Amino acid sequence: MKKITCAILSFITMTQLNAQKLQIDANLNNVPNGTTVYLIDGMSNKITDSSKVADSKFKLSTKADNPSIYVLTFSGGLTTKLAVFLGNENLTINGDVNKMDAIEYKGSATQDLYLKYMKTLTPKIQSLFADKSLAASPAGANSKDSLAKQIELKESGLTNTTIDLLKANNSSPVSTLFLIQTANFVTYIKDHIAELYAILDGPAKKGPFAELVEKSLLTATLGKVGTVLPEFKQNDVNGKPVSLSSLRGKYVLVDFWASWCGPCRAENPNVVKAFNEYKAKGFTVLGVSLDQDKSKWLDAIKKDGLAWTHVSDLKYWNNQVAVQFGIQSIPANFLIDPKGVVIGRDLRGEDLVKILSANLK
Q1: Which residue from 39, 59, 77, 122 has the least number of CB within 10 angstroms?
Q2: Per DSSP, which regions of 164-313 are E strands?
Q3: 203: which residues sit within 8 A by CB, 6+ positions away?
Q4: Assign residue 40 a region: left if phi > 0, alpha if psi is -120 to 50, beta otherwise?
Q5: CATH code of domain 2-107
Q6: Cβ neighbourhood burial of 178 (10 Å; 0-12, 13-18, 19+)
Q7: Strand partners, 106
C-alpha cells in the first residue's frame, strides 16, 4: 500500500511540475534532421531553450513568469519563424514548415486567441499600410484626396475591430499585446490608450505587456508637442558620446528604430528622402537604435543609406533613452525645432516632409 501511495504521490508531483513549465512538442515536416530549434523570449530576445530535430520531431521547454510571446527559429538555411503566445502550459505543434497557414497549434488558449487576433487584424493592417505607402509614393500623387479618405475609413474600421476584440477578450494578456501594437500606428488607439486599457482586467493587467502600457501612461506627457524634449546622451557608432543638446540650432528628428524592425526599415527611405531634401536648410536626424548586435546595426545603417548620426547602448528594449522616453514600440520619433521644442511626433511617410516644408523655406 505504501508503494502504491508513493507512486500516486510521485505521479501527482510530476504532473504539477510539468504544469509549471512551458512545454512544446512539435512534429514539423520538411525540417532536416539535426536542425537546431531555438526558443526565443520575444521580450528579451534571449534564447531560453534549444533542441535538435529528429524525424521531424523536437521538444522545447522553459519557465514562464507570465504568458508572453516566444519565437521558434531554426538553424541552417531555414528562415521560417513561428510566433507563439504561451504561459506555463503544454502546446503541440503539427504541420509543415512549407505550409505555414496550415500548421496546427493545440493546448493553449492564449495561442488560440493570438492566432484569432492575427487572422482578424493582419489583412486590415496590411491593406492600411499598402494605401499609406501608395499615398506617399509618386504613383499616388494624382489620387491623394481619394486615398486619404480611404485611409481614414480603413483606420476607422481597424480601430473598431480592435476595440471589439479588446472588449470580447478583456482578461487576456494577448489583448494587452495588441493594444500596444495597434497604438503604434492607429491614431485613435494611441490617443485613447488609457481608456482602452481601462477596459482590460485580471491577467490582462499583469505581465510584461501590462508593464509596458503602464510605463507608457506614466510618460504620456513626455515628448508632447509644444514641450521641450528632455536632454539625453548616448554613444555613437565609434563609442563617442553624443548629446541631444549638441544638435541645438537645427531641426532634429529623434528617430527610434532597429535593424531587426521591419516597419522601421520600410520607413527609412522616407526619412532618407527628407534628410537629403532638407539637410542643407538646417535639418538632421539622430537615430537611436534598439539593436543588440553592433554588426547588424552598422550593416543596416550602410544598406539603408542612413547618413546621419546614430547612437545606441545595444540593450534592445532596455535602451536607456527608449526607457527614459517610454518607447513601447518602434518606429517612433520626435521632431524638434532649433530650441528643442517638439513640433511633431511619430511622423510617417510624407508627414515629415510636410512639416519640414512649412518650417524650412
Answers
A1: 77
A2: 233-235, 241-243, 251-257, 283-289, 309-311
A3: 67, 171, 172, 173
A4: beta
A5: 2.60.40.10
A6: buried
A7: 92
Domains in the chain: boundaries: 2-107, 111-218, 233-359
Closest to 50 measured CA to CA, from 68, 71, 32: 71
What are the strands, taking DSSP E only, across 123-279? 233-235, 241-243, 251-257
CA distance 186 to 183: 5
Beta strands in 273-315 (DSSP E): 283-289, 309-311
CA geometry: angle 342, 178, 63, nearest 5 deg = 115
Mean pLDDT in residue range 255-280: 94
Please state, for a pLDDT cut of 70, what percent of the chain lies above it: 95
Q: Is the peptide bond before 331 cis (omega within 30 degrees of 0)?
A: yes
What would the grid cell of residue 352 be? Answer: 515629415
How many CB atoms lie under 10 A from the CB of residue 48? 16
CA-based nearest residue to 99, from 33, 27, 25, 30: 30
Q: Give me the sign of the Cα torsion angle 156, 157, 159, 163.
A: positive
Q: Is the dihedral of CA 218, 223, 229, 235 positive or negative?
A: positive
**Distance (Å, whole) CA 175 – CA 183:** 12
Q: How many residues does the chain have?
A: 361
Owner of C-alpha cell 534532421: 33
pLDDT at 1: 42
Pairing of strands 309-311, 241-243: unpaired
Q: 233-359 adopts what CATH topology?
A: Glutaredoxin (3.40.30)
Of residues 130 and 55, more confidence is placed in 55
Of 231, 243, 120, 135, nearest to 182 by C-alpha is 120
pTM of the model: 0.71
CA dihedral 91, 126, 156, 183 (to 10 degrees): 60
Whether 211 has a pLDDT exceeding 70, the answer reads yes
